[in-house]
Specification:
268 residues, globular
Length: 268
């Protein structure tokens, strides 16, 4: 698989473990690592290798718009930001990051990063994602977060989350249909080809290797999100599926077929 290097995904996994160890339970993991934990056992059994890991770490948070400024600052997400900064993560736009030296694997200070060639630096990103944006969020935290309304299902209804123990901590993962819906939604917003290819790979494996049967997944996804025509238009290029084939080690035709079936209007 050539999408990400072993160093990138290995480093991300190490930092996922470090972050999970310092956060309060339960910890909601989203994005690529949530997909990995959902499909990897079945994928490895079928393919004889692990599924692609993730470069970034996505964490989910539930916010109530009625929280006061003080309550927001001391909420789970506020405490998480404090803990990340104590661990040396720096804010950058809507995310937090650290610079890691590619050859040594060691963390770099700002001064060291300035003296190190960019190709020798791997930036590990933590992306906090909220179910809705609190009106005082920017005032309190000085940035606008990424929001994903489907997260509300995960926090408000146990039927929309999978609970597991990983790294000796209690984690929550969105159920396959929630993950699949979020991945499909992100397809239309991708500007980087690499991210789009990873989404295509994630959508395929969630459809094929997650515990829920495809017919039910499709039904649930069509119920959760709109705009499937726009998504379909975004993935018309044969080149995208060929790149996904290289990354995933599965024929482009098989990957494309899943998309064709998944994006068809549900007939019952």
């Amino acid at each position: 698989m050539g999408l990400y290097s072993d160093f990138e995904t290995g480093t991300s996994y190490v930092y996922l473990q470090k972050i999970v160890e310092i956060l309060n339970e339960p910890i909601c993991v989203l994005g690529g690592w949530a997909v990995y934990f959902t499909v990897n056992v079945a994928f490895r059994k079928d393919q004889g290798r692990n599924y692609i890991g993730s470069r970034d770490i996505d964490l989910g948070f539930h916010l109530n718009k009625n929280l006061t400024k003080h309550q927001l600052k001391s909420s789970t997400i506020g405490n998480t930001f404090t803990l990340l900064e104590k661990q040396g993560f720096k804010p950058l736009g809507f995310r937090y990051y650290k610079d890691i030296h590619v050859e040594t694997g060691k963390e770099l200070t700002s001064e060291q990063s300035a003296k190190t060639p960019t190709h020798d630096i791997f930036q590990i990103y933590i992306d906090p994602i909220v179910n809705e944006v609190h009106p005082l969020f920017r005032e309190v935290f000085r940035f606008d977060p990424v929001d994903e309304p489907l997260l509300s299902y995960v926090f408000q209804d146990k039927n929309y989350r999978t609970e597991l123990i990983e790294f000796n901590k209690h984690l929550w993962l969105p159920t396959p249909e929630i993950l699949l819906a979020t991945k499909l939604k992100s397809v239309c917003n991708r500007t980087k080809d690499e991210k789009l290819i990873k989404d295509i790979c994630d959508i395929y494996v969630l459809s094929w290797y997650s515990p829920k049967k495809f017919h039910q997944l499709k039904h649930d996804v069509h119920r959760l999100i709109d705009g499937l025509e726009e998504i379909s238009a975004r993935v018309q290029s044969e080149d995208l599926f060929k790149k996904a084939e290289i990354a995933l080690g599965i024929e482009a035709k098989a990957i494309k077929n899943i998309f064709v079936q998944l994006l068809k209007l549900y007939k019952g």
